[in-house]
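Researcher: I'd like a structural prediction for the single chain below. Treat it as a standalone chain; there are no partners to consider.
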Amino acid sequence: MDCIAKGKARVRYEFGCKVSIATSLDEGFILGMRSFAGNPYDGHTLREALEQVEILTDQRPELAVVDRGYRGHGETKTRVLISGTRRGLTPKLIADLRRRSAIEPEIGHMKTDGRLSRCPLKGATGDAIFAVLCACGHNIRKILAHLRLWLAYIMAAIWVTAAMENPRSQRAIAS
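Model: Treating it as a single chain, here is the predicted structure.
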């Protein structure tokens, strides 16, 4: 466990290990999650996080949208957009920068729902395993939410179709 200085008024310090999260820009699925022992500089963790995404998806990301803590990253294979940058950006890239803020609530959900704030496993290996398992659980929760919505849509379509075929229910709907 390490002390990580946050610099915020509400929570000045956190204790634990640093975790890097790589998500898809549109859907918010976790593509890679890796824990780092100690308290490394964010910019030094970017290359390893992108390598993990490349290993898991068999593609190198063309674009990485990161926060200001990643300045001085030294990444050359992937284009890196740092939040707060405005010069020379197309409207699409500006929209991608705005979309980056959607990761913050996802991190909050992983800390509360996925219990990422408390790791029950021991040591650096336990931290790494727990981070990956938390990412899997988060993706499964997102998939189940989509399936629930899809099931509700199908059930509503079946109910409307059954109501149209049954003449008694048409009178009940009309009245």
